[in-house]
Amino acid sequence: MQIIISIFVGILMAGGLFSINLAVRGIDRKFNLYYFLIVTGMSLFLILSLISYYVTEINDFIFVEKTINVVLLLSCLVLILLVQEISNYRNKNIVLLLTVPLILFLIVNFFRNYGISIDELVRINKTEIYYGEKLNKYEIVQSVWLEFIKLYLVVLLLYIIKAIHFAYNNKRRKDALLLLISFMPVVISMGITISFFDHQSVNINFIFEISFVLFAIILSSKNFNDIINYSRVSKALEESESRFRTLFEKSADPMLLIQGNEFIDCNEAAAKILNYESIEDLKKITPDQISPEYQPDGQLSRTKAQELIALTKIRGSHNFEWIHTTKEGIELWIEVTLTLLPFEKNNLIFVSWRNINDRKKAEEDLISAKEKAENSEKVKTAFLAQMSHEIRSPLFGILSYISLIKEGLVEGNLDKTESEQYFKTIERSSARLIRTIDLILNMSELQTLSYNPIFTMLDLNPLLSNLLDEYLETANKKNIKLSFSAELPVTNVTCDEYSVNQIFANLIDNAIKYTEEGEIKISIELNSESKIVVKIIDTGIGMSDDFLSNLFTPFTQEEIGYTRKYEGNGLGLALVKNYCQINNIDLAVKSKKGIGTEFKLTFQ
Q1: pLDDT digits (tens, 9 = 90+) for 414-450
Q2: In Å, what is the CA distance from 185 to each residue of 189, 308, 459, 465?
Q3: Are 316 and 301 in contact (CB under 8 A)?
């Protein structure tokens, strides 16, 4: 027995020394310190118990037993602190309630001589104390203590049943099982103690049970407090949920809950922004159905949505801009905020929307205005460069040949053939200058919206015939065949005569200018929709696909610079486009580099 106790004491002290080492190093300082004190108390109890076994004198024996009681009572005090540290439950009232009786026990321990006088104690054998043959006066104290333990045991059992029942009914089965496992050893231990308690013996080691009682009181108080707090927390959660539900449903901002590809819930604002009649109507569809197939960046809406949700699950929340579609299919710019709501089984995505359609339109208008301003600056620069060339070149020709004529007249050596050539050049340069000025004036009228069209019934046949007569000589000089065909007996359309005349004049002039050889065909036809169509087809140099996109932009030409082969200011086709819009004429172009160009005008 001595060897076993020695080994056990050694193990306890080793554990205690390890704990005090951790406490000194600042690791769970309070817990390890309390544990060291408990281990020390247990070790002292075992050592003193071993000493009492060998003591023969009654006074020495009583002193040792009282010392053991002191150790046990002090250990109980430390146990209170240790249990609080383990359970993280620090209730000052409980500590005070349990500490005061322990202090009273300490006082009684030293001043009460087991119910008998000192003289009587001297004459009593040590063995008689164990069996209580001379200690009848102490029986009353023992009985009171025993009844107290019985009463507490009944209260404790009732509390355990109540706590487990409450936990089970609130679907906290794990907590109910934990309570049962925690309390059963205490109940069994106390039951055994009561069953074997000897009314006629001192049995001072019953103080061991005090520690169990204290532990049970602290644990019961803590668990009862937890249950009360759980009820309070449950009530607070219900109130919080009610507040959130009110905020969710009554909020002016659209809010939704999404799980996978399904709407779990939404508020009226969400249904209203997409023009759905009710919340239920919106919940019947899937999130995919309220987005266009593609987003503005060209990415599939479904693919992009999956990527953004995955990003939200990583970050916790994510904000971005998105195009949704209303019930009628109208696109709507929305600022979307996704927030992850993690749950044990399934995660939800909380979605809040903000309509930014007006803001996006304002941004687009601002960008458009900026682009227009930049384009206007480019147009102005191009205009000055182009016009300086288009005006300077013919003026230079006119002035040069006038100077030659003047010189010939002064010197009297002006040749008739040369003079005719000079005058033709002057005439051609003047016509070019007049055409440039006319184009500038016409474009200016269109830009300032000061052009007022006069719509009348106009026969296209004579109009085109007259224009062909005007350009026939120019075409013949370049050996270009100019042909005209009208398959319709009636070619009347409602249009503005001046602007339509300018359309055909510019197109025919360009066809002749950019055709070195071959032919130019002009025809009037009727399409499958019984609309009059005029086609102008040439076998000229044609245009590249890249240039076709800028064909009707003012001051643009496929060849630019002073070394370009063909003269022109880049305003002709821009005017044609504007005049076609005024007369509601559909203009289509087909061209192949090195083969030719076809302009098709469809009158509505």
Answers
A1: 777 777 777 877 877 777 777 777 777 777 777 777 7
A2: 6, 55, 114, 118
A3: no
Proportion of the chain in helix, strand, coil states, percent, rounded to 5: 65, 15, 20
Gap between the Cα atoms of 471 and 396, Å rounded: 25
* Residue at token pair 């907590």: 175
Share the mean pLDDT of the chain.
73
The stretch 586-601 carries a mean pLDDT of 91
408 membership: H or E segment, kind and range: helix 357-411
Neighbours of 549 (CB within 10 A): 8
Tokens linked to 448? 């300032």
Phi, psi (degrees; rounded to nearest 5) at 32: -70, -35
Residues 6+ apart with CB under 8 A from 380: none
The 262-266 sheet, strands edge to edge: 262-266, 255-259, 348-355, 331-341, 317-325
pTM of the model: 0.38
The residues that bridge with 256 in the sheet, in sequence order, are 266, 351
Closest CA to 75 of 222, 221, 209: 209
Distance CA 435, CA 514 (A): 17
Structural domains of the chain sorted by starting position, each given as residue range(s) with its CATH number in brackets: 55-234 (no CATH), 251-355 (3.30.450.20), 364-451 (1.10.287.130), 452-604 (3.30.565.10)
Unique residue bearing structure tokens 């064909």: 551
Cα distances from 603 to residues 216, 333, 347, 494, 546, in angstroms, run 101, 38, 61, 9, 27
Distance CA 531, CA 251 (A): 56
